[in-house]
Amino acid sequence: MKEEIEKEEATAELLGQYEPEATGTINLKNARAYAEKHYKNYNKGYPEFGNDCTNFVSQILAEGGRREVYPMHLPSYTTDSKYWYMKKRPDNSWGWSKSWTVVSDLYAHLVRTQKGYSSTSKSSIISNAKSGDVIQFKKPGADRYSHTMWIYEKQSSNLLLSGHDNDYLKRSFNAITGYAKYRIIKM
C-alpha cells in the first residue's frame, strides 16, 4: 500500500498536475460555516486526534457535502485509501479510514476523483487554487507532505486558510514559512 501511495504521489509530482475522470464540488457556504464554528471549538461529534490537521479538513469536506466512502463491513480502522470516513460503529466505538486523518492518505483518496496540482511557487499555487480546495505542505528535504489545510477564501494574490494544529480560520498563505513545496486538491 505504501508503495502504491508513493507511486501515485510521484506520478502526480512529476506531472505537476493530475487529472482524473470525474470532479466533484462541496457546498462552500456549509463548509465555511463549519470551519467558522469549529476552528477553535472542536466538534464533540467527532473524535479529536493529536496532529489534528487532516481530521479537521476531512470534517470540513464532509460537512460541506463530500460523500464519505465506507467499506461494506465497518472495521475500527482501515488503511485502504479508496475509503474515506469517520463513523460510529454499532458498538458505539469510532470507525475511520486512514485517509480521514493522514496527509498522504487523504491525498491518495481525493486524487482518485479530483484534480491535483503541485508547485514550489506560492504564486503558482495561488493562481491555480480556488476557495474550497485542499492545500498540503512539504518541508525542505522531506520525503512526504506533512500538513493539510483548507482554502477558506481565495484573494487576488493570497489564500486564507483554515486548519488545526495551530488553530486558524483565515491564516494568510503568504505568511506561512518553513515549507518548500505545496499541492492543492481541487474540490
UniProtKB/TrEMBL annotation:
The lineage's top-level taxon is: Bacteria
Protein name (Swiss-Prot/TrEMBL):
Amidase domain-containing protein
Which InterPro entries does the entry mention?
Answer: Amidase_6 (IPR024301)
Q: Where is the Putative amidase domain?
A: 28-182
Q: Which Pfam families match?
A: Amidase_6 (PF12671)
